[in-house]
Amino acid sequence: MIRVGAIADVHFSKNSAGRLADHWQEMHNSVDVFVLAGDLTTHGDPEEAAVLARELQVVQVPIIAILGNHDYDSNKEAQIRRELESVGVMVLECESITLPINGKTLGISGTIGFGGGFAGACASAFGEPEMKAFINHTKDLSAKLHAELEGLHSDYRIALVHYAPVKDTVVGERLEIYPFLGSYLLAEAIDSAGADLVIHGHAHHGTEKGVTSRGIPVRNVALPLLGRSYAIYTLDKFKDEIPVTKEEIVSAEMENPDLVEAVA
Questions:
Q1: Rounded mean pLDDT, 54-63
Q2: The Cα angle at residue 97 between residues 152 and 42, in degrees rounded to 5
Q3: What is the pTM of this model?
Q4: Which CATH number fits domain 2-262: 3.30.365.10, 3.30.470.20, 3.40.190.10, 3.60.21.10?
């Protein structure tokens, strides 16, 4: 059995020091690996990433991360990646990693993904060059994710994305913004290549649990949605989630992502 801790959309700022370290420092007692599914900063500022990097130094298990749309906002994603990698975080973008855990191997393929919408109500690469570029970008990243997942030769495989691959986990958001929250093309790539679990963020007002058309579990781990410092999922081909303890539960103010308070 492999226990996966997961969170997304922590949106660290320069004033976020001390937000989550107390909740992450005992994580090794509950999980074997920690994954971060993007939107690690508020404005894509490397100084924000540096604050998060210092916070993550208390974590005693391997940390795997991808970046989200907020992390690209200042066009400094390369510096953000370096800040995180400086403390041992393994950052993926159309890349994979395989880890030996508890006598098994866990492969993780990661990409930010992109939008376009979901089956039955989605955009297509038709018309203006700008629309074609929008959808072709999603197609390109989906194809790369497919290749990465297919290239994994591990006991378990996780697809780590920021944008949602299925509509299930964005339910609760306004319908008008569904095309900007994810794309069915990601799910098609994952279903074709195969995986044991999909983890994403981005949809703050969405739904935690979903499934691809071929039955792969999808989990939205956006912090404002979960209201806790991380979720725990177990991989045993596939057992359901282990509930977190009271001490691991936090609440998040969606209007102010810097405010996270422990729940008694």
A1: 97
A2: 130
A3: 0.88
A4: 3.60.21.10
